[in-house]
Design a protein that fits this description.
Number of helices: 3
Number of strands: 0
Radius of gyration: 15 Å
Strand content: under 5%
Shape: elongated
Number of domains: 1
Distance between the termini: 45 Å
Helix content: over 70%
Structural class: mainly alpha
Order of helices and strands: HHH
Length: about 90
């Protein structure tokens, strides 16, 4: 049950990344991807510490968010770069 809340949280974070990436163009590509990477690293480090918790619920919540955030960012980047490439060609 508690990990389901983490999955809902991942949907919100993924939507946030997609909205932020939608303002991307060829001029600010490096700046926006750098910002996303910094956000990913800080969020991963915050939720990644939960993996080491002695409480099983918190540890599973942390592992769901740790892996889910990585997948969410990769999917957001790939989808938005594909859309950017299609729009500008």
């Amino acid at each position: 049950m508690f990990t389901t809340l983490g999955e809902i949280m991942l949907l919100g974070l993924g939507a946030d990344y997609c909205i932020f990436l939608s303002s991307m163009n060829k001029d600010n590509l490096k700046k926006i991807i750098g910002s996303i990477v910094v956000c990913l690293l800080t969020t991963e480090s915050a939720f990644g510490t939960l993996v080491f918790s002695d409480t099983k619920v918190l540890a599973s919540f942390g592992s769901v968010l740790l892996l889910g955030l990585l997948g969410t960012v990769i999917c957001s980047l790939v989808c938005n770069l594909y859309i950017l490439k299609k729009v500008h060609n």
